Amino acid sequence: MEAYSRPPQNKYKSLIQEIWYTHIDKEEDIPRQDMIIPRGYINLVFNFGDPYYWLREQIPQKLPPILLTGQLTGQTIIKYGNFVDQIGLVIKAAGFYPLFHRPDSLFKNIIIDGSHREWRLDPLYQELIKQPSYEERYKSIHTWLEQVTKGQEIPDKLNTILKDMDQLDQRGSIQDLALKHNYSQSGLERFFKKYVGMTPKEYLGIVQFKKTLGSYNSMDMVDFYYDQSHFTKVCHRYTGRAPKQLWEESQEITLRYLLNNADFLQSKEGEYE
């Protein structure tokens, strides 16, 4: 199995969180199931391996070779084929509009077929499929990013609000955040829903849960949750599992990486700044 992840070049860090790659050969004894949980990001995935499926109420639905998701507010179970070859972009909330020229609010909890002509992603897919290595694909994605963002205005205000929100714990409030940025609370909600597709409160809940993924049984949790019961309820909301079950029994590829908070996805320090 090969799995890598690294941030984009500096000029795209306001739009893209990371560019990842996963390759599993048919004979490898590795679980072929994944759980995608809310993280406050949008996913763009290019699949060059066997067909893979979204398990919706345990009914498999085949996913397109170019997949986009809007903001997710609940778990999504993915079942891979025997041969896995994928590369993907984890797009920040402020990145969807500059990349695709439409607000993410239109696609909340929606799986999008990115092979449709309107998304203009097929030429990139055809370029990537000819390139067997992560290095080559990583470079081609940057060429595409340069093309699609040329002349596009990056929503700096949204980026600033998102960074401030990332620092909020349970003692902070959306009202304080709105005042800091010269909005009424309702005004901030309208602005936020237009570009992110959810309310500030919904997004903040996802951000706080994301921060606890590597901190189970850690005192870090007290920054976000009143007690263990509160955290258990939130964990069920986003993953469908109790905390102990999530941390001790989960075998999904991406989820194990997030929970371990370890070096499952490798990058070379400083090489891609």
Q: What is the chain-wise order of helices and strands?
A: EEEEEEEEEHEHHHHHHHHH
Helix content: 25-40%
Largest sheet: 6 strands, antiparallel
Basic shape:
globular
What integer value in Å does the Rg equal? 19 Å
Give a written overview of the molecule.
The chain has 273 residues and is α+β, with helices and mostly antiparallel strands. Helix content is 36%, strand content 19%. It has 10 helices and 10 strands. It has helices at 96-100, 122-129, 134-149, 156-166, 174-180, 185-196, 200-212, 228-239, 243-249, 253-260; strands at residues 2-6, 16-24, 33-36, 42-47, 53-56, 59-62, 66-69, 76-79, 84-91, 111-113. The protein has a 6-stranded antiparallel β-sheet, with helices on one face. The protein has a 4-stranded antiparallel β-sheet with strand order 3-8-5-6. β5 (53-56) and β6 (59-62) form a beta hairpin.
Name its key features.
Jelly Rolls, alpha+beta, 10 helices, 2 domains, four-stranded antiparallel β-sheet, disordered C terminus, Arc Repressor Mutant, subunit A, globular, six-stranded antiparallel β-sheet
In short:
The protein has 273 residues and is of the alpha+beta class. The protein has helices at 96-100, 122-129, 134-149, 156-166, 174-180, 185-196, 200-212, 228-239, 243-249, 253-260, and strands at 2-6, 16-24, 33-36, 42-47, 53-56, 59-62, 66-69, 76-79, 84-91, 111-113.
Question: What are the SSEs and their pairings?
Answer:
Elements: E1 2-6, E2 16-24, E3 33-36, E4 42-47, E5 53-56, E6 59-62, E7 66-69, E8 76-79, E9 84-91, H1 96-100, E10 111-113, H2 122-129, H3 134-149, H4 156-166, H5 174-180, H6 185-196, H7 200-212, H8 228-239, H9 243-249, H10 253-260
Antiparallel strand pairs: 1-2, 2-9, 3-8, 4-7, 4-9, 5-6, 5-8, 7-10
